[in-house]
Design goal:
The protein folds into two domains: 35 residues, no CATH class; 31 residues. It is 73% helix and 0% strand. It has three helices and no strands.
């Protein structure tokens, strides 16, 4: 990952770095790995996340199609 600093503006470069890390999911992975998660808990969490994603897609599709 490459971040260029323009006009010695380090604050702007840090914001860009944080956005890129957020998009790639680095912060989320760090948060999840802070504590050990049992395999059954991981499967349960991933299944719930998938359900939330699916409901979000369906909700957006309903809004778009006008059902």
């Amino acid at each position: 990952m490459l971040i260029t600093i323009r006009d010695n503006n380090v604050d702007h470069a840090l914001r860009i770095l944080k956005k890129k890390l957020q998009r790639e999911g680095v912060f989320r992975v760090m948060k999840l790995r802070k504590h050990f998660e049992k395999p059954c808990e991981r499967r349960k969490r991933e299944k719930a996340e998938a359900g939330r994603r699916m409901r979000k897609v369906l909700r957006k599709r309903m809004e778009r199609d006008g059902y």
